[in-house]
Specification:
The complex is a heterodimer. By secondary structure, chain A is mainly beta. Chain A contains no helices and twelve strands. The relative contact order of chain A is 0.35. Chain B is built from no helices and eleven strands. Classes of the chains: A mainly beta, B mainly beta.
Chain lengths: 114, 115
């Protein structure tokens, strides 16, 4: 069955430092996509980055990069040079090609301190 | 600009009432989703729809039903509201069945309180 696991309920990082948010997944579909979303205290869901199961390279978008380890079924989000505005909930999500379901993990609350 | 609009930001209903949560998207997206978000549990999928009149149960469909008569509108129905359905409800839409890399767009959420 399709499943996303985020084992870090909360993380702290100092401004300008890098931080890694963990995500592991489980699926029997060889074709899938992985997404990360940010949810600030305002509640909106903001799409950050996407990684496809057949992508050869790790995805990057500005300060966000995805450490994709297919054999370990992990897709960790790396935020470089953290900013105070990065304080938010972060959700990992997966979509399987053969079901089209989009499921989410339980999220990680990141707090960036000066 | 893409837009997913949920009909209410805040809603208070009584136990046993029938509750309708409406979601409209203006992007001609095939796929639409309803989630509930609770602290420590993340977003849990209630129902989703591939296209008009097509629906699939998610992980927690009990106590809910959905309707999709038109492509742009996806309604979540609580047949008989109970206090354990007090939650934040998020609607999302996405382009394309079977296309993996399209992101989902979310509404602003409806915070439902059942008293």
């Amino acid at each position: 069955a399709q499943k996303i696991t985020q084992t870090q309920p909360g993380m702290f990082v100092q401004e300008k430092e890098a931080v890694t948010l963990d995500c592991t997944y489980d699926t029997s579909d060889p074709s899938y996509g992985l997404f990360w979303y940010k949810q600030p205290s305002s509640g909106e869901m903001i799409f950050l980055i996407y990684q496809g199961s057949y992508d050869q390279q790790n995805a990057t978008e500005g300060r966000y990069s995805l450490n994709f380890q297919k054999a370990r079924k992990s897709a960790n989000l790396v935020i470089s040079a953290s900013q105070l505005g990065d304080s938010a909930m972060y959700f990992c999500a997966m979509r399987e090609k053969n079901t089209d379901k989009l499921i989410f993990g339980t999220g990680t609350r990141l707090q960036v301190f000066p | 600009d893409v837009k997913v609009t949920q009909s209410s930001r805040y809603l208070v209903k009584r136990t046993g009432e029938k509750v309708f949560l409406e979601c409209v998207q203006d992007m001609d997206h095939e796929n639409m989703f309803w989630y509930r978000q609770d602290p420590g549990l993340g977003l849990r999928l209630i129902y989703f729809s591939y296209d008009v009149k097509m629906k699939e149960k998610g992980d927690i469909p009990e106590g809910y039903s959905v309707s999709r008569e038109k492509k742009e509108r996806f309604s979540l129905i609580l047949e008989s509201a109970s206090t354990n359905q007090t939650s934040m409800y998020l609607c999302a839409s996405r382009l394309g069945t079977g296309i993996l890399n399209t992101e989902a767009f979310f509404g602003q959420g409806t915070r439902l309180t059942v008293v």
